[in-house]
Amino acid sequence: MPALQRVFYFYKMKEDLLHFIWKYKKYPVNGLKTTSDEDVYVKSVGTHNDLSGPDFFNAQIELNGQLWAGNVEVHLKSSDWYAHNHQEDRNYDNVILHVVWEDDISVYRKDGSQIPTVSLKDIISDSLLQNYQKLFNTKNYKFINCENDFDKVDEFIKENWLDRLFVERLEQKSIFITELLVYTNNNWEQVLFLMLLKSFGSKINRDVFVEIGKSIDFSIIRKLHKKPLQMESLFFGQAKLLDNATTDDKYLEELQKEYNYLAHKFNLNPVFKSPEFFRLRPMNFPTIRLAQLSAIYAENNNLFHLLIEKEESDFFDILKIGTSPYWDTHYNFGKISKQSKKRISSSFLNLLFINTIIPLKFAYRQYKGATDNEGLFQMMAKIKKEENSIITNFDKLQASIINAKDSQTYLQLYNNYCRKDKCLDCAIGASLMNVKA
């Protein structure tokens, strides 16, 4: 490839390509030298670091036959070392090798010793650079970078990567669960309560619904078991949905009376901001969702153990409970609507199972030290796949999306890799980088 064209690649290049080259040894392993003509033999590239600090930890490098152990830093240009002020950061004192595309300046440690540098500009194959350009050429795709070659990737590579992505998605969802465990002092019943509130609040009201849950001592929820009127008054009162109501509504008056009693008895303080109704379909109104959830908790005690130990069919039976009769003819207080039972829909139950129950089962199994997740895979495989624009676009690429496990996996792929152009961290993108141009 002409030198001028390699200069062009440099200006379109990102450091993630150099990380990829180093991590997977896409340079000539034999005859590798530093810019000072030292022989380099890479015993271990180290562990890739996505956080602050050097790019690769605990590498092992032989320089002229002498073994060094330490960290490796990767830059487009050597001068980036100083542009990023690494010379002032003690985290970089143990860098044993500087890997760059272009070596434009010598780099020194704090003690004055020069850091050995390997320049990749003239030793990387043309085919790798061309594959990189093809993968990230924005003129080539409408949906994701690899859409034109997606069907060319070996199915074995895809299947293994997608299984890893599903576990990765559960691990990411477990972060919030771990935070709730700390908040609740490992009270799994309360964690489920807050997780359900988050799901019932959906995208618009999830944060305020969680705050409603946190405003209630969970012991109160237990005390109101089999007391549906009081349970509902508690939910609505803490959500500030009983305030400023001027309509003549007997049921509302009952709820206000019950809430005033509970607020005095338990020293309750409602949330600062009440939930939103704007742009929500009536079945997603906070009144309906809170009425549904309060009915579930009025009917069931020890809900976590009921759900965590049950199969998916039992889960649906437990949560299919309807609301109090008032909501058969209302979506909000004081406004009569056409009569209809406000049971939780099957599609919403599926979302609860996907986004709350399965992540909780996964986190609880980890908490108990269990490592086999095959049962969770099978449960998700029985649930209908989600329908959205992302899944539709993957369907067009002939992706095999049959059930909820598949759709969750492809959402993880798109949101965490495709959308962020992290193709070189993706097994599918990495496979395409290895194809000869």
Automatic annotation (TrEMBL):
InterPro entries to which the protein is assigned, alphabetical: DUF2851
Highest taxon in the source lineage: Bacteria
Name the record gives this protein: DUF2851 domain-containing protein
Organism: Maribacter litoralis
